[in-house]
From TrEMBL, chain A:
Membrane topology, record value: Peripheral membrane protein
Subcellular compartments: Cell membrane
PROSITE patterns hit by this protein: ABC_TRANSPORTER_2
Domain named ABC transporter: residues: 2-235
SUPFAM superfamilies associated with the record: P-loop containing nucleoside triphosphate hydrolases
Keyword terms: ATP-binding, Cell membrane, Ion transport, Iron, Iron transport, Membrane, Nucleotide-binding, Transport
Molecular function (Gene Ontology), one example: ATP binding
Segments traversing the membrane: none
Protein name: ABC transporter ATP-binding protein
Annotated Gene3D superfamilies: P-loop containing nucleotide triphosphate hydrolases
PANTHER family: IRON(3+)-HYDROXAMATE IMPORT ATP-BINDING PROTEIN FHUC (PTHR42771), PETROBACTIN IMPORT ATP-BINDING PROTEIN YCLP (PTHR42771:SF3)
Pfam families: ABC_tran
Automatic annotation (TrEMBL), chain B:
Keyword Cell membrane: yes
Pfam families with a match to the protein in the record: FecCD (PF01032)
Regions that span the bilayer: 38-56, 68-87, 93-115, 122-143, 172-193, 213-243, 255-276, 282-301
SUPFAM superfamilies, alphabetized: ABC transporter involved in vitamin B12 uptake, BtuC
Biological source species: Thioclava marina
Tagged with keyword Transmembrane: yes
Listed name of the protein: Iron ABC transporter permease
Entry's family note: Belongs to the binding-protein-dependent transport system permease family. FecCD subfamily.
Keywords noted in UniProt: Cell membrane, Membrane, Transmembrane, Transmembrane helix, Transport
Length: 251, 308
């Protein structure tokens, strides 16, 4: 369970997040949608204690992120932000292995090595494992960072626009992987711009606009023609395909 | 590499104006009072400076800086100058503490200064370091002129050398060596810091705490080297870059190689300086300054294509 109460955040007087309240049930893929500047990234960064503690309260599985040791929280949630600029020269395997740090603190055991190997397989990185990340394409590097976050094997996985740079096949593979984690009892909070990925894979949708949460609920309730057109202030049409909403915007 | 280091160490013990003979008490004295301390001083200085270079590069996430190009030695010299002016008869340990504290302040000031620079502008960070060391260095020189202490200051700030090293006057370098060894214990933390503050936080580290610890290592190494043998440039820059190019930045594996390479480089420079106009000497710092400046330019030139 992620509980957010009265969470506010501003940058030099400009409100980015206005007293947000949110409860996210475990065992679901929750998609965070909304236009640019809605406060989606800020919300995920505050939940993942990347930004310093602001006004309001965030609890992850009962742990207050402002007062709990960061190392303890790293076993409760993994986070991958949008900025993944690597200044150091690391091999893919070395980068992914850092995902085990919260568990082994630099002394990896057989279980840690197995987790790294599994993540390399899951993200199609076996042949790239010994390459330096800086020699990879944007999408390959993104997969390496995703593998690191997943290797943390935490109850909660928080991803800010993880589909950046991914081709369609790898984007689908990521969503399918998240669904498997969900089916195994995991929980995912994911910022998505492609509404069809949200409509197709999420269990729960949270819509944000201007620093506030404006709609929340099951996919069919939030992904509607009226709601989305209003949210993005552009004509969007929602149809249905195999029992799931299908978002159309090119007609 | 270990073999190279041992060979150089052997050569270092064998080279000098005094001829050594087995079983000669005079030779044993030369060895124990001068040659061995000098060899150890070069090894410790090289290893510690190279490791301090890596630590600083991880802290600022830029591989074109080292303490010597970021104002830390000048800051240490400023502290020493202040002690010399205010309490000229203070015991050595007081001077050491003040030098380390002011080197810490200098390195911290650099980290704060560059915080607002975008990480992608890789040449702004080393530039800011050079400006900072220029400003602090000029301030130290100005005050030293006024107080007629230029001779002292030039020992700290100009090219470091090992000819003054004798038993009893280099042991502080062990503190610098110990600081470098501590950095290796925290190698994974420094490597994770290189992933950026967000990723480090997500993995449960406190970036601020790791940075503070790193600055302490940098300050201790810089202060001990400046006080014991004077400024030695470029070791912390060239060695980490070459090792990174060979084996990457997985610091747990690479830091020992960095330390070993730094020791080899400084020991070799000292040896070259002693042989080039034998029996006179050229300071190791000058040998490194000439060789290092060229290598640094080469790194900048190639680094442009290297980082994207």
């Amino acid at each position: 369970m992620i509980e957010v109460e009265g969470l506010s955040f501003d940058i030099r007087g400009v409100p980015i997040l206005k007293s947000a309240d949110l409860r996210l049930e475990p065992g679901k893929i929750t998609a965070l949608i909304g236009p640019n500047g809605a406060g989606k990234s800020t919300l995920t960064r505050l939940i993942a204690r990347i930004e310093p503690p602001p006004k309001g309260r965030v609890r992850v599985n009962g742990l207050d992120v402002a007062t709990t040791l960061s190392d303890r929280l790293a076993r409760e949630m993994a986070f991958l932000g949008q900025q993944t600029y690597l200044a150091s020269r690391l091999r893919v395997r070395e980068l992914v292995a850092f995902g085990r740090w919260p568990h082994c603190h630099g002394r990896p055991g057989p279980a840690d090595r197995a987790a790294v190997d599994q993540a390399l397989t899951d993200f199609d990185l076996e042949t790239l494992a010994d390459r330096f990340v800086e020699t990879l394409s944007g999408g390959q590097a993104q997969r390496a960072h995703l593998a690191m976050a997943v290797t943390q094997q935490t109850p909660w996985l928080i991803l800010d626009e993880p589909l950046n740079n991914l081709d369609l096949a790898h984007a689908r593979a990521l969503m399918a992987h998240l669904a498997r984690l969900r089916d195994a009892g995991g929980s995912v909070l994911i910022v998505l711009h492609d509404l069809n990925f949200a409509a197709g894979w999420a269990d729960h949708i949270v819509a944000m606009k201007d620093g506030a949460i404006v709609a929340e609920g099951p996919v069919e309730e939030v992904v509607t023609t009226a709601r989305l057109s209003d949210l993005y202030e552009t004509p969007i049409s929602v149809s249905a395909h195999q029992g799931r909403p299908l978002v159309l915007h090119h007609i | 590499m270990a073999v190279v280091l041992i060979a150089l160490a052997g050569a270092s013990l064998g080279v000098g104006a005094a001829r050594l003979q087995a079983g000669d008490p005079m030779s044993a004295l030369v060895l124990s009072v001068s040659r061995i301390p000098r060899m150890l001083a070069a090894v410790l200085t090289g290893a510690a400076l190279a490791v301090a270079g890596v630590v600083m590069q991880q802290i600022v996430r830029n591989r074109f800086v080292e303490p010597a190009t970021a104002g830390s030695p000048e800051a240490a010299a400023a502290g020493l100058l202040a002690v010399t002016l205010i309490a000229p008869h203070a015991p050595l340990w007081v001077k050491m503490v003040v030098a380390a504290a002011s080197a810490l302040a200098g390195a911290a000031l650099f980290v704060v200064l560059i915080r607002r620079l975008p990480p992608h502008e890789i040449f702004l960070v080393p530039l800011a370091g050079l400006v900072l060391s220029g400003v602090v260095g000029a301030g130290v020189t100005f005050i030293a002129w006024q107080a007629d202490l230029m001779q002292y200051v030039s020992i700290w700030m100009l090219s470091g050398e090992f000819s003054g090293v004798i038993a009893g006057r280099y042991e502080l370098l062990w503190i610098g060596g110990a600081a470098a060894a501590l950095a290796w214990v925290a190698a994974d933390r420094f490597a994770i810091l290189g992933l950026g503050p967000d990723a480090a936080t997500a993995l449960g580290l406190s970036p601020r705490a790791v940075i503070r610890f790193g600055l302490l290592v940098v300050a201790l190494v810089t202060a001990m080297v400046v006080v014991s043998v004077g400024m030695i440039p470029f070791v912390g820059l060239i060695v980490p870059n070459l090792v990174s190019r060979m084996m990457g930045d997985n610091l747990r594996a690479s830091l020992p190689v960095v330390a070993l390479s730094g020791a080899i480089l400084v020991l070799a420079s000292d040896l070259v300086g002693r042989l080039i106009i034998y029996p006179y000497e050229v300071p190791a710092g000058i040998i490194l300054g000439v060789f290092g400046a060229a290598a640094f330019l080469g790194l900048l030139w190639r680094g442009d294509r290297h980082v994207h």
